[in-house]
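Below is how a single chain appears once it has passed through the pipeline. First comes the sequence as given, then the structure the pipeline wrote out for it. We keep one example in the README because the format questions we get most often are answered faster by looking than by reading.
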Amino acid sequence: MDIVSKEQVIEFFDVRAEKWDDFAKNDESVTHDIIGNLGQLEGKKVLDIGCGTGYMIPYYLEAGAKKVTGVDISAEMLGKAGQKFKDHSKVDFVNGDAEQLKFDEKYDICVIYNAFPHFPSPEALLHNLWAALTDNGSICIAHGASRAVIDGCHAHGACHVSRGLPSDQEFHELLEKEFDIKTFISDERMIELIGIKK
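Resulting structure:
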């Protein structure tokens, strides 16, 4: 896999933030399935990694999340998200590098939606998020399309800011170091892995 430059990732998403919501297409039925597979969100604190302009946040809130913290390395993407949720007391945002950020509190659930290939060091990311989770907290890596669609999309214009998606086996190997895998879906509609903190 190619090495991804964080500076290039920031520049790539900063430039596209203003029109990102017009560009990014999501299948709402897939999103509902991804959220449903997370289990009970009522009263839970959710950490949304690579949250972008905040696409997933309404779904967490609808499912009863007590708090949602969105994290993104792109200040421009977070600026758009902040505008959308400026009146929501349950939502806050952190601009920073999720591979290295130290979180002041623990979260019940951490979700990385449509963002995993943009992290240069998946191992460092997962270890850092493991530390941000409560005991028995869960992590979810999800994509609202198939591996072929995602890799194909990144090959056209985003190859310099994306690693290829791990294979099914590589995904298992990445998570199994610090998580017990509860759910694994990889088909023509979506990819979703859910692991419980060891």
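DSSP finds eight helices and seven strands in the chain.

See the next section for the split statistics.
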